[in-house]
Design goal:
Strand 2 and strand 3 form a beta hairpin. Helices cover 45% and strands 16% of the residues. The longest helix has 18 residues. With 98 residues, it is of the alpha+beta class. Helix 1 packs across helix 5. The protein has one domain. 19% of the residues are buried. It is elongated, with a radius of gyration of 14 Å. Strands 1-3-2 form a 3-stranded antiparallel sheet.
């Protein structure tokens, strides 16, 4: 296995400021959900968030194993549970901003 990289594009009906705020939250969920033994994998997450796209990357060679649920600390993985939060985050920020 290898590193992890996921890119999320902004839906056309979501304003850029809502997208950025939601993706910052998704990034924090990903980091907080990463199993910790030595802390290396959790500390290795990198985000690149713009008004149209967000990329989350972890270069550790075992990150994909953790994302597949190989740890009892995150049996459902890391990325998919965080991405499942996106609709609620969009709704929360839409209600907050507009």
């Amino acid at each position: 296995m290898a590193d992890i990289s996921i890119t999320v594009s902004r839906p056309p009906d979501i304003p850029p400021e809502v997208f950025i705020s939601a993706m910052e939250d998704v990034f924090q969920i990903i980091v907080d959900s990463t199993p910790v033994d030595t802390g290396t994998c959790q500390a290795a997450w990198i985000s690149d968030i713009s008004s149209d796209e967000a990329t989350f990357f972890n270069p550790t060679e075992y990150a994909s194993y953790l994302d597949e649920g190989w740890s009892n600390q995150a049996p459902n993985g890391i990325i998919d549970p965080a991405l499942a939060e996106i609709p609620d985050l969009f709704n929360n920020y839409l209600n907050q901003y507009f």
